[in-house]
From TrEMBL:
Family to which this protein belongs: Belongs to the [NiFe]/[NiFeSe] hydrogenase large subunit family.
Binding site for Mg(2+): 54, 586
Residues that bind Ni(2+): 73, 76, 580
Organism (species): Alteromonas confluentis
A Pfam family hit: NiFeSe_Hases
Assembly description: Heterodimer of a large and a small subunit.
Keywords noted in UniProt: Iron, Magnesium, Metal-binding, Nickel, Oxidoreductase
Name of this chain's protein: Uptake hydrogenase large subunit
Binding site for Fe cation: 76, 583
Amino acid sequence: MNDLNSSSLDNSGRRIVVDPVTRIEGHMRCEVNVDKDNIIRNAVSTGTMWRGLEVILKGRDPRDAWAFVERICGVCTGCHALTSVRAVEDALGIDIPLNAHIIRHLMDKTLNIHDHVVHFYHLHALDWVNPVNALKADPVKTSDLQKKVSIAHPKSSPGYFKDVQTRIKKFVESGQLGLFANGYWTNPAYKLPPEADLMAVAHYLEALDMQKEIVKIHTIFGGKNPHPNYMVGGVACAINLDGTGSSGAPVNMTSLNFVLERIREAEAFIKNVYIPDVIAIATLYKDWLYGGGLAAHNVMSYGTHTVVPGDRSTDLVPAGAIIGGNWDEIHPVDVRNPDEIQEFVDHSWYQYANGAKGLHPWDGETEAKFELGPNFKGTKTNIKELDESAKYSWIKSPRWKGHAMEVGPLSRYIIGYASGKEYIKEQVDRSLHAFNSATGMDLGLKQFLPSTLGRTLARALDSELCVDSMLDDWHQLVANIKGGDSSTANVEKWDPSTWPKEAKGVGINEAPRGALGHWIKIKDGKIENYQAVVPTTWNGSPRDANGNIGAFEASLLNTPMERPDEPVEILRTLHSFDPCLACSTHVMAEDGQELTKVKVR
């Protein structure tokens, strides 16, 4: 079986609606049907904002596109900018200097690490961790647990955990629970002992500090965070090792050593806290192996972290696609081929000029049809149920050779493992061994990895890959500079007079959430067409004309729920993707007029 098809779904049971899905980027709605045993038999995922960014970019200077698309989201910032400048450079035939190549790697991997850490501790962990239950913990036993989970982490004393517990107690007693206020803390789906909850909350607080430090790398090379500066032809920073270290100064040895310190800090946190925490939580939820969905069938990666510029065989994370769960056959992916990647709108609130025919992004259309939807039961202010047989989302349905695909860290790791990448194989084998040793189970890789737990683990392992390779990047950059190369940009084709009358290009990347592509057409020096197909467009897509369902919907099927009115299980699996609806959909007034005005003082 290659795809999961809606013909096998059963929407006759009780309908559960989660709207909005919180702790994500953007606006999302999810509906499921559960049978008499409270097992999910049907799922409907909806993006509830219109996508209009492509319309905004038409007619603009392609050298400026990165600055617009970077504002798609305040979390996924630099990955869109990087993919955009790659698309323009591909169209115009621009090669960037080696220093720019390395610096872009450092900035991109910084984004991945920051995104993964924030996702797990501040968005996803609360699906597994009960902070209120931490008040019952014994700090001495918590200290013992910490040393068992990761003896290398220095913050492990009973006094440290007692202080954290006191902070939680004051927070709870104040009545200002904030994001903890609406948790389903009495739901039996939460299974961690109080000591594990206390340890996790302590790391939640530590991660707040860690994440603000790692992004300072963006301020060195890109001037700021979020939305660091990029440029077509290279990077927007100069190098002068003899320069002084002040704000706005060229990159020098002082700032490079500052970057190295941040990398080392991130390395310690990822290896001593993040990965051990994910494995510990997995062992305590050892029977929760749901949420595989398309990860057990169809996965895709564009590949990333090319060590030698222009040589994709040196990608640390390889490209490819796997169909029908056959890990023995990895298909190449050609993002330029109009027969491979197409977007459909059969169940999206858009309309193509040629009807339901799928369009390659170079020929993509973003024509919203507000009169087409939404179709629902209830009222506009109280939508009871969307009609999944009709149009029901502002997200399009991208397909690879007609297949619905899952993208993201889990897909990257399945393809990397199946491709025989030794670093990735060692990471996965080590993690599975730790899980089996702690639980006494004997799970095989295909039983464990394609699941919600495996998807969450893959993000942590991806962080480790990024931080380890950042050390290599840093040393390569310093050696290259000391060898006399200080170039950071190629401006030979900066002037539009050097461009062809018409050109088209594509930029690809593996963003934190998965395969990201930007396709551009340039005519007379201006953007004629621009289309971005983002990871959440792949994962959050509605059904297509053949009934094939997207990764969000597929991953929820056959999941049992403890209390359907408290949808902890739905949130666990959806959050494991870290949905970014801000990337897959954009808001704009129906008549194109200004929505609101904000004055910043």
